[in-house]
Amino acid sequence: MTELSEKGFIDMLGTPEIGNVRRRDGKALGPTLTEYIVRSLHTGRIFLYAAAPKKLHTPLPHRAPEVIFQDHVDYRVDLWSMGRMLFDLFTGQPPFDTFMITHPVLVRQMQEMASDILPARWHNSWDTMKEKDSETPETRRSPRTPGMACRNGWKKYTLTNVTPEYITRLGQAIGKLLYFAPCARASTTEVSHDPWFNE
């Protein structure tokens, strides 16, 4: 994707489906409402490749694992963000809870979705987080993988052109980006050459 222009990126993803905004009572929208809503996907901070900050300050559900564990930050936080964004774009819901989320809850949800296990260098921090955790086994959601989550996210849609194979392949493409270890995440070039993106 590093070689793609903005137009090429949009052409590759396809045009978005836009849902019209309507009032429940059937009356006109009024002067302050538009006929459709544009959703902003920007959830991070821009920095130069050679001048990465020591910390990123983004909303908790949008943080890459290395930000949560206060590890080295570089351009690969964007690869995690791309995986999150693709999940959100194609399923219509974020991969991680956004309401009243805590560090332990988010890390546990990341463990359910990530394609690898939590690196050993973060275990002590994780143990400290778990000590402060107020979540109980009864309140935890069911474990899931990117593929399962994509299928569950699509259950609310009645799109006839979405096959189980398509959803499985989408989950695999997203899974290449959702690795705890930043060095294991697929590069933008690898992702753009994934057969799923070239259909």
TrEMBL record:
Q: Where is the segment annotated Disordered?
A: 128-147
User: What PROSITE patterns has UniProt attached to this entry?
Assistant: PROTEIN_KINASE_DOM
Q: Which ranges are annotated Basic and acidic residues under compositional bias?
A: 128-141
Pfam families per record: Pkinase
Source species, domain of life: Eukaryota
**Residue ranges of domain Protein kinase in the record:** 1-197
Gene Ontology molecular function: ATP binding; protein kinase activity
InterPro entries found in the cross-reference section: Kinase-like_dom_sf (IPR011009), Prot_kinase_dom (IPR000719)
Q: What is this protein's record name?
A: Protein kinase domain-containing protein
